Amino acid sequence: MLLPPDPALVHARALRGRGSTLPPGFRPADEILESWARCLDGGLDYAARVRVPVVEAAELVRRRDHTGNLRRLAHAELETLMQQIAGSNFLLAFADADGTVLDVLSDNRFAMSTDEDIVVGSCWREDVVGTNGLGTALATGRGVAVTGPDHFLLRLADVSCTASPIRDADGRIVGLLDASSYVESRQRHTQALVQMSTAHIENVLMAEQREGQLLVAIHPRREFLRTISAGLLAFDDEGQLTALNARAQTLLAGLDARRGSRFEQLFGERFAEFFARVHARGETQLHDGLGSALVARWVGARTSTLTPIAPRRTGGAPVTQSIAPAPAPRFVADDRTVAHALHAAQQALTSAVPILVQGETGAGKEYLLREAHAACGLQGDFVVVRCAALTLERLAAEQALATASGDTHTLLLDEVGELDAATQAALVGWVDDRAHSPGGPRLVATTQHDLGAAATAHQFRGDLLYRLQGVGLAVPPLRRRSDFEACTREVLARIAPSARLDARAQELLRRHTWPGNWRELQSVLTRAWYDLSAQPGSESLSIDASRLEGLLGPASVAGAQASLLQRETTARVLRELERQRGSISATARRLGISRNTVYRHLREADRLQLGGDHAALR
Q1: Where residue 127 falls among pLDDT bands split at 50, 70, 90?
Q2: Which of 235, 484, 539, 560 would be a feasible disulfide site paired with 214, CB 3.0-4.6 Å?
Q3: Which CATH number among 3.40.50.1820, 3.30.310.70, 3.40.1280.10, 3.30.450.40 corresponds to the domain 7-184?
Q4: Is the pLDDT of residue 400 over 60?
């Protein structure tokens, strides 16, 4: 039975903080009232100045190591979320199953405004600090939004947060994602994004933890089988259900869909027959026990767009991975600068010359090096060391990577500009040792910083820079690539092969500045497709501009509208030019413009590939 909240609590909230009052008509949701009741029963004082406890550094390292691959997956989702809500004064956090924050990403405005409670190592269990996103999501086992005065502690009433638990294939909570902000208006939107991120992590964990079992995606419509809207089911060799995601539970509502259920209890045929059919065809029709029609797809470890390939373990150090963090689109190198960089990287790798690739975050530096490694047909793994997490202690552990396989491998020092001074000094000797050791790795590095300028300013060791920059390459940002449309097609094909973009949507994407580059592009297209696929009764497979306008902002929309107007005006000039049989003078007189303006539109037509050969025009 729900206990009524203490009237003094509600009254104190009306007088909280800086003399401000509660919003008009404010009434907490039932889940908040239940949380308040738990806090009161636990003896918490809403007016007390409770300090959020923070674990010691050694304990933080232990907790991070304990999460294993989960932390890497969570960090990738945090980076994507940061691009999705950039400029919204947010702080993003990943916490373990005990509510202790292991990683934080935030913009400067939030960092300058916060009371420095939401820090790495801080513990946010509800029984410790009262109602809050992380703690209440952990206590209830479901996603929750805690807006301002919903917090039990009065001093937290200026912050709004939304959190969602991450469950493994056995249904156990293994971590949480949280987004905190001073902006309440986007809370519902942010909650949906956080839940999408946790759902993606859960799909990956299921694939990893049920490796070797039959993993199938289900959905009533075939075109959604490769999206996050699909249900995911894992069966053992006997046809017993060993894992399912939340979407599968929704799709199989009304059936006894739980771990331990047999295939025959859920679907109207024998498991052996279904297994043979889906194995042979890849996709097949299926009917659940209530007669609803579904499409099922075999999810293979190396072909699924739902689940990245799990990294090869190297002693549990989370800064190292041997496989890409997610399946990449086909590498696009139709841009001349990118094609040149790829060719140069192949030559350098073949000759074992160190490579340093500079470019903005998310511009594809690592993907270029992976493509060069694969294109050269080199033996050995492509091993990545995340320098932002590399310490002197971890560097000693990474020594084992040099002899991890019998073949010489390619070792990527990712974001080498993030190294502190002490680690840079240790790395100089380490690089020299590796270079003179038999079977030493081919060294490549990436950075988003100008390390030459940093070395001049004594912010980066020049001797380390010289060792790493045998060949210096640059990857252009997405907004400057001449093959942008090809990039867009490849990303969209990965998300939903059947989806299309209309002309105005493509122009809208072209005009955006893409500060997050590939990650942001994938995020925007994923959200647009998710919104489309989640719309009841939607039969359209075309993403139009209206679905992108809210994701890209007014500057891109205005730019795209101007660009489309220019395209339409140029097309009008071309049509009149055709009617005037190619006469520049007649076209200018007919449209009331100058001859120079007609020529300008002809140059624009050539750039946009709107017309044919204009050399014979007079």
Answers
A1: very high
A2: 235
A3: 3.30.450.40
A4: no
DSSP state of 240: B
Neighbours of 554 (CB within 10 A): 8
Closest by CA to 217, choosing from 303, 143, 327, is 303
Beta bridge partners of 355: 444, 471
Q: Where are the domains of the chain?
A: 7-184, 210-298, 320-476, 480-535+542-552, 558-608
- Is 100 within 8 Å of 63 (Cβ atoms)? yes
- Name the pairing type of β-strands 410-414 and 442-447: parallel
Q: Are strands 173-181 and 214-219 parallel, antiparallel or unpaired?
A: unpaired
Question: Of 102, 97, 190, 87, whose CA–CA distance to 147 is shortest?
Answer: 190
More confident residue, 578 or 605: 578
Q: How far apart are CA 47 and CA 519, in angstroms?
A: 43
The top-level CATH class assigned to 320-476 is alpha beta
480-535+542-552 is a CATH 1.10.8.60 domain? yes
Q: Tell me the pLDDT tens digit for each residue of 416-426.
A: 988 888 888 88
Sequence-ordered strand ranges (E) for 63-212: 90-96, 101-106, 144-146, 160-167, 173-181
pLDDT of residue 483: 92
Name the residue with higher pLDDT: 594 or 193.
193
Tell me the average pLDDT of the chain: 78
The enclosing H or E element of 375 equals helix 365-375
**Ramachandran angles phi, psi of 533, nearest 5°:** -70, -25
> Which DSSP letter does residue 53 get?
P
